[in-house]
Amino acid sequence: MNRDVFSVDGKVVIVTGGGTGIGAEIAREFAGRGAKVLIASRNAEHLGPVAEGIRADGGVVESITCDVRDPSQVERMVERAYEKFGGLDVLINNHGASFFQPAEEISPNGFATIVAINLQGTFLCSKAAALKWIAAKHHGRIINMSSDAGVYGAPGMSHYGAAKAGVQNLTRTLAMEWARHGILVNCIAPGPIDTPEAGARTWPTPELRRTIEHSTALRRLGRVEEIAWPCVFFASDASSFVTGQTISIDGGPSSLLFVQQHE
């Protein structure tokens, strides 16, 4: 009988930013497939409903508040996985933050804050997990979350686009450095994904939403599960020869002019 190379059953998984949107769906997807999940967020009130829902569906989950900019909190988060579940197999760096502002109006503190959360936080979490794995000779997996803003740039969010581009470069570098330890590091760059948080910030009007939908070849927004499924691939044995890669989950590139001409 062939084994299921896509299985994540029994794996211990940390999902940062696991209290809302894409992170919450990633946590639900892994728990539903038999993984033991630790969800983390800066906001404790976001964690309870997600954890309760996973448990109600029969999943195994714990939660912890963590500011990924604080090395001591990050180390405590990783330790919690070992304390509660006896180890750690997969780290999913899904946390993120941004705000809209023209580049000339962004303060030094505002720029530094967004870079610290998105880029420095990804490094700190990855390092904390890798130190455990290297010491134990455990072949862990790291899945970083970038953005199409890190691929194409992001007018009005120069701090966010720069940080997410840095996440992709960090992914490649860590993959090369830690390959000798059997640690695989990959990255996902979502395009426009339909979440309440993104909708309120990115397409607040029906007209803008339609414009965003038509900016993809598939002419629709992505669903949160369409980001969770590639995470399962990267966490499973199906990706055992894949490291240092960033895949764009963006509905395909498109030209608005081309779309309008062919409606």
What can you tell me about this protein's structure?
The protein is α/β, with parallel strands linked by helices and 263 residues long. It has a single domain, classed as Rossmann fold. It has ten helices and seven strands. Strands 3-2-1-4-5-6-7 form a seven-stranded parallel β-sheet, sandwiched between helices. Helix 1 links the parallel strand 1 (12-16) and strand 2. Helix 1 (21-32) packs across helix 9, helix 3 (71-85) packs parallel to helix 4 (108-136) and helix 4 runs parallel beside helix 6 (158-178). The relative contact order is 0.14. The model is unreliable at 256-263 (pLDDT under 50).
What key attributes describe this structure?
single chain, 263 residues, alpha/beta, Rossmann fold, 7-stranded parallel β-sheet, 10 helices, 7 strands, disordered C terminus
